[in-house]
Specification:
This protein is of the alpha+beta class and 207 residues long. Helix content is 23%, strand content 22%. The protein contains three helices and eight strands, in the order βαββββαβββα. Strands 2-3-4-1-5-8-7-6 form an eight-stranded mixed β-sheet, covered by helices on one side. The radius of gyration is 29 Å and the shape is elongated. It starts with 40 loop residues before the first strand and ends in a 23-residue tail after the last helix. The relative contact order is 0.14.
Length: 207
Amino acid sequence: MGFAGGTRGAGRSGRCAAAPGGTRAESDSCPNLLGMADVRGMTIALNAGEFTEVLDFYTLVFGHGPDTAPLDDFLEWQICPGSWLQISTGHDRPGANNARVRLEVDNIEVSVKRLTGAKVPVGEVVVIQDVVSFVNFSDNWGNALGFYQLLSPRHVLSAEERARRDRERAAEVERDRAEEEAAAKPPAPARNPNLPPTGSGVPGQQS
């Protein structure tokens, strides 16, 4: 079976044989359909719920806030140079199996043409102006994949800026906690207007 219409190499197991050093053998029988030499990075994209809950949870997971937030409902953490966890927030019913791996390329049109030329079904290219263009597709086994091309450099926060935002968020969480605790306290009992003021002594007696 080909890669969604492509051709696999002629190894004994049906996979391309590995060349010395762990790289794939480059030959006519083992075409590089994805053109991995063109790939510059990758993302793992997840859908999640309410923004601040997602922010706080993944800040706890990574030990710091996001490295960049290119959109109001979008958070990104850099796992290692070139590899990013992307989280789209605000989804009412995020799926349990919604992860998609996208590969960064220099020219998304060239990459898409390479796949469509091999009869791989590819979705429409989505363009977010001045941010990114991306396209989705799947492999023969239903794994969700995609390409993306940055239309402008990522604005990655410096360590100092990220630490400042982390402190601001921690202070905001503490304020919210204090307000919730204050709201949970029972109100003081109302004073009976027929009673004398506190500290006025017993009526008819002089102190």
